[in-house]
Design a protein that fits this description.
With about 325 residues, the chain is an alpha/beta fold. It folds into two domains: about 70 residues, Winged helix-like DNA-binding domain superfamily/Winged helix DNA-binding domain (Arc Repressor Mutant, subunit A); about 170 residues, Vaccinia Virus protein VP39 (Rossmann fold). It contains 13 helices and nine strands. It is globular and about 65 Å long. Bound molecules: S-adenosylmethionine. The site of S-adenosylmethionine has 17 residues, from helix 8.
């Protein structure tokens, strides 16, 4: 028996942290003024396939780095990387306590006390809000165009993306189904940021989906929302969606579906432990919650993208 799996896992966080640090230090924007051991960081990035050596001994971005690791690229994933570097990486340092206590690590890692809404931690400063929402946008662009085509949504007329961040999901739906109108609904701070992507393409409504009236629609979306919350809040939110939907209306959910072989979903479930009140679920667990809330049919689709899809019809 070879120890390959163990050796690879010993190395795994070093790979991530090397990329996080290089993004943080502007390596993929061409910064080479990196300090005493800058060469070692550049060599590490080259070994990871993020930089290539040039004939004159310098480095250039590989195609992947140029597309996903430059902050000004339309496909950038640097938002999620910066959020990972500044927030997730320190909090994952307390995974052992999270496992023992079954709760997130904002307080332990950053000294946040006194509760307050969960997203006040993610949005504590403009910079943190921007990293997080750009992170959602970058990942969303990888999934949303496929997700909205995983089901036939052509019969729906008005799609409301609840907690939609930059609106990547509702904008993909409106693009895929001419004749569909879209509304992006999110907290005021998120709408303020999201409008730079969504204004003029879909309607914008600021509000709290646990409290405020939901904008009218026959298709609601919850993209990476249910995994943030405990079951009591999920039940409340699903009931609010059912109450707002007309008969035959539907809810489109974007989440990673837990399956034994879906390693990314299991890592995300631990990540939800670290930074939220929630967790990832199997399709059967979602089906139970959706049926209890009043949906009569529930269909799941594995998309091959970072998130899978569920369509629940009232
Ligand atoms: C994990 S992000 C998912 C964003 C987006 N749906 C996606 O898939 O990229 C959670 C989103 O829910 C929003 N949110 C959190 N609490 C909310 C609330 N009470 N009412 C409305 N939106 C909320 C956040 O602002 C954020 O945009």
């Amino acid at each position: 028996m070879k120890p390959t799996i163990v050796l690879n896992l010993i190395d795994a966080f070093r790979h991530s942290k090397t990329m996080f640090t290089a993004v943080q230090m502007g390596v993929f924007e061409g910064n080479r003024d990196l300090g005493v051991a800058g060469d070692r960081l550049l060599e590490g990035c080259a070994a990871l396939g993020l930089l290539e050596r040039t004939a004159d001994g310098g480095y250039v971005n590989t195609a992947e780095a140029d597309t996903y690791l430059r902050k000004d690229s339309p496909h950038t994933l640097t938002g999620y990387i910066l959020y990972s570097n500044k927030a997730l990486y320190p909090m994952w340092g307390n995974l052992e306590d999270a496992v023992r206590e079954g709760s997130n690590r904002w307080g332990q890692t950053f000294g946040f006390t006194g509760g307050g809404p969960l997203f006040s931690h993610f949005f504590e400063t403009e910079e943190k809000k921007q990293d997080f929402l750009m992170g959602m946008h970058g990942f969303g662009q990888l999934s949303s165009p496929t997700l909205v085509r995983s089901f036939d949504l052509s019969r729906f007329r008005r799609c409301v993306d609840l907690g939609g961040a930059t609106g990547h999901l509702v904008m993909a739906a409106v693009e895929a189904y001419p004749g569909m109108q879209g509304v992006l609904f999110d907290l005021p701070q998120a709408i303020e940021f999201g409008k730079r992507f969504a204004e003029g393409k879909v309607g914008l409504v600021a509000g709290d989906f646990f409290v405020d009236a939901l904008p009218e629609g026959d298709l609601y979306c919850l993209g990476r929302i249910l995994h943030d919350w405990n079951e009591e809040k999920i039940r409340m939110l699903l009931r609010r969606v059912v109450d707002a939907l007309p008969e035959g209306g539907a809810l489109l959910i974007a989440e990673k579906l837990l399956r034994p072989e879906n390693v990314s979903a299991h890592m995300q479930s631990l990540n939800m432990l670290i930074c939220t009140e929630g967790r990832e679920r199997t399709l059967e667990e979602y089906r139970a919650l959706l049926t209890e809330a009043g949906f009569r049919s529930v269909e799941g689709k594995v998309t091959g993208c970072p998130v899978d899809g569920i369509l629940a019809v009232k």
